Amino acid sequence: MKLKMAPNSLFAILLRNPWWYSVVLVVVICAVSAALLPKDVVVFGAIGSFPFLVTAGIALKRQWNKPSAAAIEAEMARLAALSWREFSQELETRFARQGYAVTRLAAQGPSTGAADFRLEKAGRVTLVAAKRYKAATHGVEALEALVAHKEAMGADDAHYLCLGTVSPQAAKYARKHAVKVGL
Predict the structure, then answer these.
(1) φ, ψ for residue 68 (rounded to 5)?
(2) Would you give the distance in Å from CA 54 to the centre of its chain?
(3) How far apart are CA 21 and CA 46, in angstroms?
(4) Cα distances (Å, whole numbers) of residue 55 to 7, 52, 59, 99
(5) pLDDT band at 182 (very low <50, low <70, confident <90, very high)
(6) CA dist list (Å): 26 to 7, 20, 44, 48, 64
């Protein structure tokens, strides 16, 4: 039996926030314990903060090498400023660094088809649709075309990379058809 934490529990909320929130909570609990409890039981009040200290450690480990929101925003702006040729070259380079054999499905400009790249690694084929333009939201039509292209080519996976967000209907469609969405 796998235990699952409630998504709105205090510990789940602390794990989603910066690690130092938990440390602040530990300090507050220790300070309140020292101020309100008799001197002979202050240590027991302070020990009550231990789960929050563990939570801070877990959150710190999860957040250690993650980029900041400002760094992500700067990278997204940089990618949005690239031409299609530069953007596709950067994607191709990054896929190759990850060990994929990369085949461009559209040699000149943005693909008129559903997919822009065919990736192969360890016998698995992945089709990638890359959308550099920053639309407010991307709809379900592009995902439907990608899934149809994936089935026609017999690919194992499909990825839809975009700088914007997908509509709620498109996100639901992506989950239903196992299309990975993001950048």
Answers:
(1) -75, 165
(2) 24
(3) 17
(4) 15, 5, 6, 35
(5) confident
(6) 21, 10, 13, 9, 20
- Say if CB 161 and CB 128 are below 8 A apart: yes
Which DSSP helix (H) or strand (E) runs through 138? Answer: strand 137-138
Distance CA 47, CA 173 (A): 48
DSSP string, 11-56: HHHHHHS-THHHHHHHHHHHHHHHHHS-GGGHHHHHHTTHHHHHHH
Query: How confident is the model at residue 106, as a pLDDT?
Result: 67
Q: Contact, 141 vs 87, CB < 8 A? A: no
Phi–psi pair at 176, nearest 5 degrees? -65, -35
Q: What is the pLDDT of residues 6-64, one digit of tens each?
A: 889 999 999 999 999 999 999 999 999 999 999 999 999 999 999 999 999 999 999 99
The secondary structure element, H or E, covering residue 126 is strand 124-131
Phi, psi of 154 (to 5 degrees): 70, 30
Amino acid at the residue 154: G
Q: How far apart are CA 69 and CA 61, in angstroms?
A: 17
Cα–Cα dist 59/143, whole Å: 34
